[in-house]
Give the backbone structure.
Amino acid sequence: MGNSDPSSVVPRHVAIIMDGNNRWARRRLLPGVAGHRAGVDAVRAAIEVCADAGVEVLTLFAFSSENWRRPTDEVSALMELFLSALRREAKKLDQNGIRLRIIGDRSRFHPELQREMEQAEALTAGHTRLVLQVAANYGGQWDIAQAAQRLAQAVKEGTLEPERITPELLQNCLTTAGMPLPDLCIRTGGEHRISNFLLWQLAYAELYFSDLFWPDFKHEAMRKALADYATRQRRFGKTSEQIEAEVRASC
């Protein structure tokens, strides 16, 4: 059973795997980087729709830790695109009250790109309309491993007893600490997998798959995904009957 008023059900946190840029470009006989450039417009659309709908956090999978395996010229083009997009879009985010957070291992990026990341985050740090998290050189396994390393270091230093380690404590050591867990994960491009994205955080997220390539996933497609989410019944291990009884009791 869905919600009686779907328009009132908005996910607090939406995560998106932006897939299909290369295939979009190949179908148009264009180089792969053209698809990534075209995908920037879809990013803007997702931000606009989520901000207008009242979503609190939008996390975009921009560059995975596995993407370094791609051809060198494509990786170089992606880094240039990332740098230029940061310089161009940071002021727009600031003007629209949107906070930027970048999650992932930054150490492999060029120092100039790292500086731009820090400056864009500092510029938008005080905003609350929407938190835009960009996952760059990110992998879900890496995120869990670095959290475990932090806890192991605390145990080694004697500031934490091993038996005090809980799922909540580990979760607070992830790069997304302080943010609500994703309610909805969208993947474009027709693939049905999560590709090492937010592995811990997506445990109870609703999954939505679209056959559209990312550059074609614009305002209408984003609104459709949010509308679909509003029809879902989230049970978190309970039965439908339990959820419906809780809803009746709250009325």
